[in-house]
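Hello again, I could really use a second opinion on something today. For a while now I've been wondering how a particular protein folds. Please have a think about how the structure follows from the sequence. Here's the protein in full, and shout if anything looks odd to you:

***
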Amino acid sequence: MSIIGTLRELSSSGKNYKAWEDNNKQNEYKRKELLKTKQFSPESIESARRKAEMLVDNISIMDQRSETFSQDIEAAIQVSSLFAILPTLTLGPLALMKHINKCPKVVQKVVSSLPVPILGTLMGTLSSLPFVSLELILQKKASRVGRYMAQRDDLKNPANFAVLSEVQKVRVNNIAQNMSDDKVNEKLKRGNFIDGLKNLFRFPANYGAYKKHLKESEREENELKKNFVKLVPNEALCKAQRDKKLIMNLANKIDMKSQEYSENVEFATNTILIGGFIPSGMAGALMFGVSRLIPGLKQKFLTSMSLSVLTSLVVEFGLLLSSLGLIKNAAQLGRFVAKKEILNNPENYLEIRDEELKNIPDKNLNGGNDNKKGVKGKIKLIKTLFKDYFEYKKYNKEQLKKDLKYKEALNQIKLTPEQEKEAKQLQKNTFRVFDKTDSYSEEFAEDVESLQGYSTPLFTLAPLFTPIAAAKFKASPKVAKVVDFSGFIASLLGIFGLDAFITKKQIQATKIAHMKADKELNDPRLFVDYSSLNVN
């Protein structure tokens, strides 16, 4: 689908999504109300919690592999593009000026009005567009290939989807505690340009395997639908419905929280950087005043100005560094917070049948104050983001390696036949949900993101044409400076505005992808293990 077609589809699906989302909110409210009176045994609560925790961990593994693989591909292409852009940036203007007399008159006029550095920037930006196209095309596929690779490699063993007994958990923990760090150090390594190049070269083979996997999944789904005519025992159908609702609920909550944090981090960093001009300006003004009082300085005014500007830049740079961790880890941070919220609220994972919710009346959920609105709400939001970020960093430092060792130790555990059968079916159902959601996610979210990739270079070119406008209207030097500065500001505002627009559209696209996947997988018979049933 084209970018314009995607935006139209998102617009037309908005009302349907609103109704779907309102229904989900009502059910979530009813579940909370029902749990105030409905009693569960401590054993059933703990069992349900462990199953949810296991699924959340596996979902996070798929998301992390998808994200890392996609970023590696992106980094490899971006660095490689420099080898094409830099020669164009430096030698392009010289070559063009040498052969300018062979160009059409309109080109000669434009080129002659541009300074060589601006001309080089223009040519460098234009030469980067083919690489931008390649990056966007591969990124759309890389995120899905990365998730498939997690299914194929990291989560291949059904033990990852088994709800273990206490005895088995103790054994896995003992194995993990005695495991060397070498087993998991590779998974803790951060990607680099070399890893990106390796993944780029391996991409065709991995993409081919992924397409083969999709065909096999489609064949399996068609085979499943042939069983729809069979009379499935109510117990098996209820189990399938329970697994389907749990997987889709967890996947939706994690994805939405990841997207929400991306949006919130964007707001926080923009606030920090733009708002940072105030403290950096105050620091610069203070340094200017102090330096003017220092006796014996030569060229006192210029020295004072230099110290003032340097102080402002140091303050602004410090604010930028303080937000880089948030920017880099926004999606992971969202998943980390989502896991905590899911496991802290039993209504997210305890089994509640739809019939039990019918006796609870609907509630108007549109009222109430939004704690994210207003100045106080925004300040509170930024404080919460940094609090979550430092908690996430602490987890990475103290607990992440232990969790990775635990997942590795699962490969050495022996499941009972019943556990293995249950685990394999849960594994299939989880992968089915993500394959279906990913198909819509690629169609919508990645198409929206590609709009940013193509548009941002065009905004960066805006200031390059202001000298032409100033020259055409024969502006005075002072007016020309104002025009040039206006072009620069317009470029910045355009990029910020586009970024905000794309982020909101991506969140909308992700939501609609989940809605469409949920509706397509609505029939619980798609989640039944027919191989273990004796039905006609």
